[in-house]
Write a structure and sequence with these properties.
Rossmann fold, 20% strand, globular
Length: 417
């Protein structure tokens, strides 16, 4: 599934065999359970996945691999994969594709659902495109270009997926000096200016997410300083410091949204002042404020009162971004902002990032620190990119000096070899 469906309090082994537990003489066959789990996991050499570790302690990318391993352990004849690589690093994607080719050679039928067009072209024999629940086209993968697929998905021609308006970086608004967390990051120094987008590249587990969480104050800082504007943060940043910083989590289901609440509640949740007298909140004012962002971002919903849980992944992500817009923060921390969403929603988010950084419409430009595993996205959206490898953050350089190959070499620690 695109959204993880694991039992967080059970171990990796227990999740893999859940519902398919082998028995012997009426008792669970522990030896066979472990053998099946080991067989499913041998395809994924991930340092954080241990058979006896609770799944809830794993980062989202590692949980995604456990989800895939569970599907393989079921012994199925038809395997449906919904956005299986949305949290995976390039080397894990390559391993997964090698495995899928082996399964296909054994006669397994694969249904691969993804918004990463390069992956679809690489792995699929035939492509079917859906839009708004209807089949709108398709054919042999070799006969369809990425541009044709995007046009079918969006319903119109997308000429410029990565818009770039003139940007004029201003004064520094976020400065990190020798920042270190409990385990990751080990060392991070950077300066983010108003009016620029700074990307963080690296492999899954390198410490990119932990860096953003330390900056926002969600994870403890063991060493170093965080400076936002005139405030220099100690080990634990104060609440008044965080009011100028917004954080978009990579795990929108568990950390980014209140799924049981309405679209209006989620958009206005971080700042309820002004929606009624004193502590009273008037729903009509909430709905009116939310409707502004629904219209601006093109959030497809039945209205501001619809539950967020009923929206698609792309529209849920737009709701999470709308909350930051409503709060009007100066520094945006975006962790995998386009993970698991369609091309149309990606285009909307890319346009929003460009408008924020450039100060479109006479607004004050914002500063954006963005983590992404999709290198073309970083190269297309960012002004500068820094690479994190094994917990250490390298220098930020202009995108004109970088390409995908160079970024991947640095992310794997091979640039100097």
């Amino acid at each position: 599934y695109q959204e993880l469906s694991l039992a967080p309090h059970l171990t990796v082994t227990e999740n893999i065999v859940l519902g398919l537990e082998p028995h012997r003489w009426g008792w669970l066959d522990r030896r066979e359970i472990r053998a099946r789990a080991d067989a499913a996991l041998r395809h994924f050499d991930h340092p954080e996945i241990h058979p006896d570790r609770p799944v809830g302690e794993l980062p989202p990318a590692a949980q995604q691999l456990v989800e895939i391993a569970r599907a393989l352990a079921s012994g199925c004849r038809v395997l449906v994969l919904d956005e299986p690589t949305s949290s995976l690093a390039a080397r894990d994607v390559a391993r997964l594709f090698d495995l899928l080719r082996q399964l296909k050679a054994r006669g397994l039928a694969l249904v691969y659902i993804s918004h990463f067009l390069e992956e679809v072209k690489q792995i699929a024999d035939r492509i079917t495109v859906l839009r708004d629940g209807r089949t709108v086209g398709g054919g042999p993968a070799a006969d369809l270009t990425p541009a044709q697929i995007v046009t079918l998905m969006v319903g119109r021609e997308v000429r410029d997926l990565y818009p770039r308006s003139p940007r004029r970086p201003g004064d520094p608004v976020l400065e990190l000096r020798d920042l270190a967390g409990r385990e990751r990051p080990r060392e991070a120094t950077l300066t983010l200016h108003r009016g620029e987008v700074l990307g963080i590249a690296g492999l899954v587990g390198a410490g990119r997410t932990e860096l953003l969480r330390c900056v926002f104050g969600l994870d403890p800082v063991r060493r170093g300083t965080v400076k936002v504007g005139a405030y220099v943060g100690p080990a634990a940043p104060a609440a008044r410091w965080r009011q100028d910083v917004g954080f978009l989590s990579e795990d929108r289901k568990n950390e980014g949204l209140a799924l049981a609440l309405s679209v209006a509640d989620n958009i206005t949740l971080s700042r309820l002042e002004g929606f009624g007298p004193g502590p009273v909140v008037w729903p009509a004012r909430q709905a009116a404020a939310a409707q502004t962002w629904i219209d601006r971002l093109g959030i497809r919903c039945l209205g501001a009162g619809q539950r967020v849980n009923d929206l698609s992944g792309g529209n849920q992500q737009k709701v999470a971004l709308a909350r930051l817009l409503q709060h009007d923060v100066d520094v945006w921390l975006l962790d995998e902002p386009t993970r698991g969403i369609d091309v149309g929603a990606k285009a909307t988010i890319y346009r929003l990032i460009d408008e924020l950084a450039s100060g479109a419409g006479g607004r004050t430009p914002k500063a954006i620190l963005m983590v992404s595993s999709y290198l073309p996205e970083l190269l297309g959206v960012c002004d500068r990119i820094a690479v994190m490898c094994r917990g250490r953050l390298g220098p930020a350089r202009p995108v004109s000096e970088l390409d995908e190959h160079r970024l991947m070499l640095e992310a794997t620690g091979q640039a100097a070899e």
